[in-house]
Amino acid sequence: MNTKKLEEKIFKGLMIGSSLLIFGVLLYILYIIIKKGLPSLSWEMISQIPSGGFYLGKEGGILNAIMGSLYLIFFSVVISLLISVPVVMYLNFTLRKKSRFSAFARLTFDVLFGIPSIVYGAFGFTIMIFFGLQASLFGGIIAVSLLIIPVMIRSIDEVAILIPVELIEATKSLGATNYETIKVIVRQLLPGISTAVLLSVGRGIGDGATVLFTAGYTDSIPTSLTQPTATLPLAIFFQLSSPIEEVQNRAYSAALILTVIILMLSFSARYFSRRFSKNKI
Amino acid sequence: MLKSRLLKDRIARHYMLTATVMAIFFLFLIGGGLFLKSLPIMQEKGLWTLLTTSNWRPFKGDFGFASYILSTLYVTGIAIIIALPLSLLTSIYIIEYASPKILRAFSSVVDLLAGIPPVIYGVWGTLTIVPFISKSIAPHFVEFSTGYSVLAAGVVLAIMIIPLIISILMEVFSAVPKEMREASMSLGATKWQTVKKVVIRKSIPGVIAATVLAISRAFGETLAVLMVCGNFTDLPKSIFDACYPLPALIANNYGEMMSVPQYESALMFAAFLLFFIIVLFNVISRLVLIQIDKRYQL
Fold first, then answer.
1. In this structure, what CATH number is given to the domain that contains residue B262?
2. Distance CA B169, CA B105 (A)
3. Among A279, A239, A216, A14, which Cα is nearest to B85's?
4. Is A19 among the domain residues?
5. A47: burial class by Cβ within 10 Å (0-12, 13-18, 19+)?
6. Which residues contact B59 (CB under 8 A, 6 or more apart)?
7. CATH label of the domain that carries residue A147
8. Measured between alpha carbons, how far is B216 from B38 in angstroms, rounded to an integer?
9. Which of A176, A203, A256, B28 has its CA 20 to 30 A from that of A28?
10. Which residues have C-beta within 8 Å of that of residue A175, sequence separation ≥ 6?
11. Domain tally, chain B
């Protein structure tokens, strides 16, 4: 009897310990990023592009990378929405509930979700060579879209499954076509779609390996799709490999900026999904 | 009026079908594209030579991937050894013992950890894990280590895959029906005995699936590993030596390989290798997870 209780106690202790450890690691990561990033964070960092001698520790900021990342993610999200929303609508509301095709499609998207970003980057790059394109905003958009389409599909699909059959039946019984029904459903799904967008923005904006070859790097803000563009993760990555301390410090504050963006996205995603679960019928 | 509505419906249907087929087609397009690109090097050297030799001199035409493959395996192995027990203990605690409040709070922690970009993990790793290994751990075992090592990459990777494993395990454990737990408890088993003999035993396929998924995630992780692994082409002799996993190899050399066609094909072969293993692992573990879902939904 006693060993039974003792074993339970030991394992419960281990479980609480490991939970606390994981929580602690999260706090430790945030603490280090804030502690290292805050000292060199300045208005100049986020409002200026690199000036001459920036990589030797002179004036300038990383506005090029911030704007580059924003352009990149904006266009990628638009493209991904144009593909993901129809896909989810087709799988859930046009096909029969238990069709083989939709099971196969879902498996494919799960697998696509698991493919690492470096593979998307390398594949995007070969496509660009094939069409004779150079590293550019356009190339980056293609690669990042490929990366976030599965994220978006899976995330919208998760909430689309929860739509009650009655809603669909009610619309259809009023004589609506399948397309008109879907318009009603999409309106119901808007909070879920917003969550999906925020999730994919987070994934896309933070990923460096996809844009490493496809988007390139530059010190100016791109003015057309064919120009290369800087991105936040690569700004951090390249500045960190510099031997000059001031440049390294700027990498830390760029890391802080990226972390703050990601945290904001994550919190708003939670807010939207909570609102959605309140509206659930 | 009716006609235009039906026309719209038909157009929408075709558009949705096209989008779906296209999205599915991506997977085959990527696989096919990478395979075609890596075909020249496979034909020239043979698959076996590429996988088992470790001479890497691209400009002399030697492409042996063995040390990169081994680096990837070492790093992944360490990551799993660290991440799996922690994730198991934590997700059991969250699902079986913790209050709903803690459950909710902890899913935020998992989401946040999952959302942190690889490059941030890399920065954190170089600031904390690398110096810690170099100054505090390595001196007890080897004469000198920069800290940029197999161990550092493994630890950083472990933290990155923990949220993935936990989120799958939480689903797997909560899929075990309540009745089974109650049956066990009503026979006089303690909570822990129930967990050990019912919940975990019932969840073994799910745990394996989660592990396989985590392995495939660890295989492909690039930037964070690249920043802490040391990028040195040689077989690592201990976990304090630098290593050079496959994704890092692709990332570091992609820009400069254009001059040698063989080199490009070799790097594409590396990408194809990653793609192939990861797709295989993903399909297997997803099928297992789908089965688990089906079994308990009835």
1. 1.10.3720.10
2. 17
3. A14
4. no
5. exposed
6. B260, B263
7. 1.10.3720.10
8. 21
9. A203
10. none
11. 1
- End-to-end, the C-alpha distance of chain B in Å comes to 44
Q: Report the residue of chain A nearest B10, measured CA to CA.
A: A179
B245 touches chain A (CB under 8 A): no
Q: Are B150 and A264 in contact (CB under 8 A)?
A: no
The verdict on a CB contact (< 8 Å) between A112 and B86 is no
Range of the domain at B218: 51-297
pLDDT tens digits, A165-191:
888 888 889 988 888 889 889 988 888
Domain limits for position A186: 64-279
What are the residues facing A139 on neighbouring strands? none
For A36-84, how does the pLDDT look when each residue is reduced to its tens digit (9 = 90+)?
Answer: 999 888 888 888 887 766 666 677 778 889 999 999 999 999 999 999 9
How would DSSP label each residue in A195-206?
HHHHHHHHHHHH
For residue B28, is it within any domain?
A: no
**Residue B190 resides in a domain:** yes
pTM: 0.91
Amino acid (one-letter) located at A68: G
DSSP B61: T
Residue A208 in contact with residue A233, Cβ under 8 Å? Answer: yes
Maximum pairwise Cα distance, chain A: 75
DSSP B223-277: HHHHHHSB---S--SSTTS-B--HHHHHHHHTTTGGG-HHHHHHHHHHHHHHHHH
Nearest CA of chain B to the CA of A208: how many Å? Answer: 7
Do residues A230 and A65 make contact, with C-beta atoms less than 8 angstroms apart? Answer: yes
